[in-house]
Design a protein that fits this description.
Blueprint lengths: L15 E5 L2 H11 L1 E7 L6 E6 L2 E6 L5 H14 L4 E10 L9 E9 L15 E2 L2 H14 L3 E8 L11 H6 L4 E3 L2 H11 L2 E11 L8 H18 L1
Parallel strand pairs: 1-4, 1-5, 5-10, 6-8, 8-9
Antiparallel strand pairs: 2-3, 3-4, 5-9, 6-7, 6-10
The chain binds hypoxanthine (HPA).
């Protein structure tokens, strides 16, 4: 059975799927890190691949940007393709001076300014968190490899161009290490379906120092994060 967004058949995806935002990153990972690769999705150019890493079956697919996009793809992977664990590999903006360009941030939890959790009808506020076992494995791999790594809360924002450009400082004051646009929806979807999720992020820009990385530099730090995710998968 395929879906409106995914032409793969049941069994085409591995139990663990790595989800970068950019589908061309998914292609890069498949071509550079996996063996015996098969393309399993191409709908809307949201490329998905299944192959092997050190003999382990693993899939990689793009998620697109933002919670509505990752929400569609992760729901379908979990609910219709038997996927058990999704590891998002993305980038984020740093909210604190300790998080430097290219550092890794593992999102232990995610806050949001989105209405995502409204659908669950909860009588309160939902805290979206990572799967601890997956998080611990990723942290241990980062330590072994000697990568500068931070573990903590982040903000998953619906807004990239904010009309209040300094409002992020309120989230920083509450301990959020950085900002991206997907993790809350992934964590909440995993929880609602009894599945596992983790978000590993590299710092691509800093709202504190206003520094930015170049596309070429991002590729290198992205490779390091990829190796971490593949070891965990
Ligand atoms: N804001 C939102 N998402 C992001 C950013 C940012 O500064 N950097 C990378 N993803």
């Amino acid at each position: 059975m395929s879906t409106p967004h995914n032409s793969a058949k049941m069994g085409d995806f591995a139990e663990t799927v790595l989800l970068p935002g950019d589908p061309l990153r998914a292609k890069f990972i498949a071509e550079n890190f996996l063996t015996d690769v098969v393309q399993v999705n191409g709908v809307r150019n949201m490329f998905g691949y299944t192959g092997y890493y050190k003999g382990k079956k693993v899939s990689v697919m793009g998620s697109g940007m933002g919670m509505p996009s990752i929400g569609i793809y992760c729901y379908e992977l979990y609910a219709f393709y038997g996927v058990k664990t999704i590891i998002r590999v993305g980038s984020c903006g740093a909210y604190v001076p300790e998080c430097k360009l290219y550092d890794i941030i593992i999102a232990q939890g995610a806050c949001t300014n989105s209405n995502w959790a409204h659908q669950y009808g909860l009588p309160g506020t939902y805290s979206a968190i990572a799967d601890f076992e997956t998080l611990k494995k990723a942290y241990d791999v980062c330590q072994e490899k000697g990568y500068r790594t931070h573990v903590g809360n982040i903000l998953s924002s619906d807004i990239f161009y904010n009309d209040q450009p300094e409002v992020w400082q309120k989230w920083a004051k509450m301990g959020c290490l950085g900002v991206e646009m997907e993790s809350y929806a992934l964590y909440a979807t995993a929880a609602s379906l009894g599945k596992k999720a983790l978000c590993i992020l590299t710092v691509s820009d800093s709202l504190v120092s206003k520094e930015e990385t170049t596309a070429e530099e991002r590729q290198t730090s992205f490779k390091q994060m990829m190796e971490v995710a593949l070891e965990v998968a």
